[in-house]
Amino acid sequence: xxxxxxxxxxxxxxxxxxxxxxxxxxxxxxxxxxxxxxxxxxxxxxxxxxxxxxxxxxxxxxxxxxxxxxxxxxxxxxxxxxxxxxxxxxxxxxxxxxxxxxxxxxxxxxxxxxxxxxxxxxxxxxxxxxxxxxxxxxxxxxxxxxxxxxxxxxxxxxxxxxxxxxxxxxxxxxxxxxxxxxxxxxxxxxxxxxxxxxxxxxxxxxxxxxxxxxxxxxxxxxx
Amino acid sequence: xxxxxxxxxxxxxxxxxxxxxxxxxxxxxxxxxxxxxxxxxxxxxxxxxxxxxxxxxxxxxxxxxxxxxxxxxxxxxxxxxxxxxxxxxxxxxxxxxxxxxxxxxxxxxxxxxxxxxxxxxxxxxxxxxxxxxxxxxxxxxxxxxxxxxxxxxxxxxxxxxxxxxxxxxxxxxxxxxxxxxxxxxxxxxxxxxxxxxxxxxxxxxxxxxxxxxxxxxxxxxxxxxxxxxxxxxxxxxxxxxxxxxxxxxxxxxxxxxxxxxxxxxxxxxxxxxxxxxxxxxxxxxxxxxxxxxxxxxx
Lengths: 223, 298
Fold this sequence. Notes:
The structure holds two protein chains of two kinds. By secondary structure, chain A is mainly alpha-helical. Chain A contains nine helices and no strands. Chain B is built from ten helices and 14 strands. Chain B has a six-stranded mixed β-sheet, with helices on both faces. Chain B is elongated, with a radius of gyration of 22 Å. The mean pLDDT of chain B is 90.
């Protein structure tokens, strides 16, 4: 079961994943080149001062990358399933439907995790030798909500695409917009430190929405 | 014969529009049963219920003795499903889709059955399904069902979008397979000539109910088209009131209708209704004419 479903997801997403991976790494490298250039021009002491006094984060370019990747992966993975209701084929397979959906979402989540991990490691590798741990944490604290937002928007996109009626789709789009707004409220370092659990909880809760969409499809809900 | 599909008292509505009420039917093992009906009589609704993609408002439906909504997932391996329009995963190639399904049905997959049919198609193994014609897609879908080798095949409007050659190929392949392997088939199609070549039994649906369910041979042996020459156009109204005269219509001095009654019985009935006529013609009909005779043209 696992092998078959992962194979299908691989066929659907492989080209997108390669491109997303390259873009994600490319933007990280570009951000770090800007940092290196600033360091060469002004010296590392100047950057430390800017980070301490003006809360400069060095990674603002990366903020929207996980969100864009999460959104596009949701579309690339689930639109082909809903095209001409091909999802009926997936739901007719001799596998438990809840587990099948879980595997499809797990595939997406693991791919995102790998992509974000690569992105994060590049940033960390470049900044780590030049910044003390406090300033490094300050920079990284501004991008991790984006990573969680990437997962959030992926699960919401899956829910929206799988939902069979426009009324609920619209509702989910509004929830997505409000949720995303919450994730992007502030880029101030450590702004989300006390609410990380909240962001993760929201993301875990909305994961379950996809099953609801599938259930509604299964019982024949339509516009 | 064991009933592979059993539906009892199915009722379904879309909003306030009743599709059907208390619909009951069975599909015996080893038979090819065609569901015939005009647009909007609930054919696709029935297929959706049988495929588990629609929950009827009331009534029960079971396949292989298991209620559809509590059926073990593994049992679906024994049901081949053809979705309207021969839908398959558009993003896969001929090879990829075979590899995928062979992993889904490892204990029953018949790879040769699929590739035998694919060899007849003039497509490259790496051609994507999205770039195939409707006819080629139909052969891919059929090949996958043959390779799955299920006990029951549920086919929704299998002839949709196919040219005569592909329709004939599909029907001949399917009939040969179903008869040689003793498979049970439940299908719908808009092309009734194709159904006549394929099915053993038919269910003819009218709006809200089943008109009849019986073997096609028995239906065609019994039903007749009748035509009389008459100037009495208002006789149509008198015939319409008799439930043994199906859809009488008057055109250019002739009244035409369909009936299960013998010619002797018809003559006797016309005499008792005091309808004047000069000539009566009785004609054997094909399945399409029988369908139109029973359901009407409108």
